[in-house]
Amino acid sequence: MTEQSFISVRGLKKSYANGQIKVLNGLDLDMKKTDRLLVIGPSGGGKSTLLRCVMGLEDVQGGEIKVDGKSYIIGGERKTNIDPEMQRQIGMVFQSYTLFPHLTVLGNLTLAPIRSRGVRKDEAEARAMDLLNRFGLKAKARAYPAALSGGQKQRVAIARALMLDPKLMLFDEVTSALDPELVNEVITMITELADSGMPMMIVTHDMWFAKKIATRVVFCDGGVIAEDATPEEFFSAPKSVRARDFIHNVLHADR
């Protein structure tokens, strides 16, 4: 029996400037619960916009996104309909950390569960300390973001997203702002999440990371999915000239 799509995207359209700048052009995508889906492609190809649309951060002008077979987002020229309950089941981590500078690490982790879920403070703090301990950050619980390294900030941002027990994690270029020696801290944390069975969709230019963690690779170009393959297939024998050129350019840029 074929495994049902966990995330189903059909005909997704996204544009800016009153339709003058088209970013997603009827994009179709299916993701299974067992997938660690890597989204790669040239700048402006639509990959980060796709993640933001799946997170419900962008209005979309057309198409539909389903989660577990249920309608989550329906696009329209005048209005985007979104199911807020489903949205709360998705976590997203950004390149820029987005931590609150006036809150401690513990405060950053507990704010959303207490405010949006009504979790008791002591329960939220116990859950937060478990996560911080799991990811080697327990000693930083009372520190403020300004006192953390870039790798520590990004690990805190991931732990904060996990506080709401998401069913899907989205990562948008989470290692690109880090110094090379700090990248491995974040990759180790994401790899641990992947090994625990967390479905994830990842945008990255780090090809080593891509090969290490992905179960599927999709190449996003021109606002559509141009290729969809296993990492082995994609990196050894991409089908299109555009994908071959992209891989060649990225690998040479990393040297």
TrEMBL record:
<dbReference type="InterPro" id="IPR017871">
    <property type="entry name" value="ABC_transporter-like_CS"/>
</dbReference>
<dbReference type="GO" id="GO:0005886">
    <property type="term" value="C:plasma membrane"/>
</dbReference>
<dbReference type="InterPro" id="IPR003439">
    <property type="entry name" value="ABC_transporter-like_ATP-bd"/>
</dbReference>
<dbReference type="GO" id="GO:0016887">
    <property type="term" value="F:ATP hydrolysis activity"/>
</dbReference>
<dbReference type="InterPro" id="IPR003593">
    <property type="entry name" value="AAA+_ATPase"/>
</dbReference>
<dbReference type="InterPro" id="IPR030679">
    <property type="entry name" value="ABC_ATPase_HisP-typ"/>
</dbReference>
<dbReference type="Pfam" id="PF00005">
    <property type="entry name" value="ABC_tran"/>
</dbReference>
<feature type="domain" description="ABC transporter">
    <location>
        <begin position="7"/>
        <end position="247"/>
    </location>
</feature>
<comment type="similarity">
    <text>Belongs to the ABC transporter superfamily.</text>
</comment>
<keyword id="KW-0813">Transport</keyword>
<dbReference type="InterPro" id="IPR050086">
    <property type="entry name" value="MetN_ABC_transporter-like"/>
</dbReference>
<protein>
    <submittedName>
        <fullName>Amino acid ABC transporter ATP-binding protein</fullName>
    </submittedName>
</protein>
<dbReference type="GO" id="GO:0005524">
    <property type="term" value="F:ATP binding"/>
</dbReference>
<dbReference type="GO" id="GO:0015424">
    <property type="term" value="F:ABC-type amino acid transporter activity"/>
</dbReference>
<dbReference type="InterPro" id="IPR027417">
    <property type="entry name" value="P-loop_NTPase"/>
</dbReference>
<keyword id="KW-0547">Nucleotide-binding</keyword>
<keyword id="KW-0067">ATP-binding</keyword>
<keyword id="KW-1003">Cell membrane</keyword>
<keyword id="KW-0029">Amino-acid transport</keyword>
<keyword id="KW-0472">Membrane</keyword>
